[in-house]
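Preliminary data (for renewal application), glutathione complex.
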Amino acid sequence: MIVLHHCVSARSFRPLWMLEELGLPYRLRVLPFPPRVHARPFLDDNPLGTVPLLEDGATRMTESAAMCQYLAARHGAGQLDVAAHDPAYGSYLNWLYMSDATLTFPQTLVLRYTHFEPQERRQPQVAQDYARWFLARLRAVDAAVQHGEFLCAGRFTAADVAVAYALQLAQHLGLDGQFPSAVAHYWQRLQARPAFQRALQAQHRAALEQGVDPTPSPDLRPA
Ligand SMILES: N[C@@H](CCC(=O)N[C@@H](CS)C(=O)NCC(=O)O)C(=O)O
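Predicted structure:
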């Protein structure tokens, strides 16, 4: 049984949505955010204290985009994967890696320096600069979805799941109003997928059952 350690609407939403898309059995362990403060024993499972942590037998992974690639390749029966011999393979990998390194990363600075740091350590200029940086990087997504429904291979793949989390986070940060219209439509199409909706419901239900605040992690504000 795959075990996914998760915080509500954190990057671990990527593998959660993948598990729902692929219809795989899994156990969802919801942790309060951030686990390194509110769930100290989790540091024994993942010394980084970050989510996601995915356990699949002896396999343990801590990078969300890599998990999307792994689940598609190992458990997807070709469904959400792009094979190495496919002409779209390079593009597929590029989107997977871009999803976190280029699209989510700048937003974490926005979140941190607007909301998570104590008042005296907040940096509005840093937040503004990295919000602009993220929106500029969205040009790549915009160009890709101007003429196609999905990012690569002419179909929905794990790369769409990985990139979508950057759009989801941007929505929590209130940046979605600045999405170019093709990106806004792409984001709407993704949210309409039944597996996306099931993943939202699964995290809410599991949080309540496990006594964790179901507020999305990016919306939490330290006291
Ligand atoms: N590159 C990693 C980043 C993991 C990460 O930083 N996760 C955040 C949640 S989105 C986290 O757990 N933060 C808590 C902390 O840094 O203590 C990935 O894509 O999975």
